[in-house]
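Reproducibility note. Readers wishing to regenerate the assembly model reported in the main text can use the exact inputs given here. Chain order matters: entities are listed in the order in which they were concatenated for prediction.
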Amino acid sequence: MTSTDISKGALFEYLLRLGDNCLVLGHRLGEWCAHGPELETEIALLNIGLDLTGQTRLLLSCAGEVEGEGRDEDALAYLRDAHQFRNLLLVEQPNGDFAMTVVRQFLYDAFHLEFYTRLQQSSDARLAAIAAKSVKEITYHLRYSAGWMVRLGDGTEESQGRMQVALDELWRYTGEMFEVDEIDQSIVAAGIGVDRAALKPLWDQRVDAVLTEATLTRPDDNGAAIGGISGIHSENLGHILTEMQFLQRAYPGATW
Amino acid sequence: MSQTDWPLYEVFIRSRNGLSHKHAGSLHATDAKMALENARDVYTRRAEGTSIWVVPSAAITASDPADKEAFFEPTADKIYRHPTFYEVPDEVENM
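Running the prediction on these inputs yields the following structure tokens for the assembly.
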């Protein structure tokens, strides 16, 4: 392989990581369709899910172009197996109760916003443009999820209890957001990507401020669960793909 | 589903500068902040707005349908109140 091939492969991997996070979390939010606690809340969750699906389309299309093997956004979304997905473990965690969904969303939004704010300065014009469009959407996502963190955390005894359980359950998946490998390093060195490790203090600051206002206790940082970005997923992703990919697997090329 | 309904809010949306806010519908929310966000999510998904007002439905005093005759019918024969004798210049878009 030449050095050009290596960076092309790394960029493809990198774009899959960005795109798969949006794809999987967007699908999870879509699962709330017809199951929301209130009509308004359900529409809000689906709006966020659709924003993420829109971001997925841009990122996976871009990934397909970079790969140059004729795979488009649909082929990448619907025709890869679980071990080929590069999303964080956090975003594939089940919806659980509304508290679990809100906490998962908040922990991710706080990261997502910091990441895309910096991605706007990417030396890759496509990524910079995708980031500029997405950052407005993500700003609202964080406003929404942080609002619910405070409302339910500093709410009733039951709502606070459920939020703390969700926080304790999901915290172990947050470490992966800041774990960098050689692919990150090469993409960051090329001025294309964002150094995720450097985002940790900014994320901490955002999260701590909201947890304080929400009267929730920050769990300990030990024992991060990692693996998603290298394709080692929990069984949850398999269940998501079973549903998400069924149509294209059963009826290849089906459109409507 | 919730056992008690959240309070009702009326939503008013201004579609662009120069126009007034128009009633778009109503929704449920626990407080004004949530009502504003719900209004954004429910009523401005297709770029309908540049500004939103939310008002607790309970704060609105409405006319009584039984007062319809006394309230509204007397205006029916007073055509001189309609400014139909003016020509509106083409440049005026929003009247």
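We highlight two features of this model. The first helix of chain B runs from residue 32 to 43. The helical segments of chain B are 32-43, 68-72.
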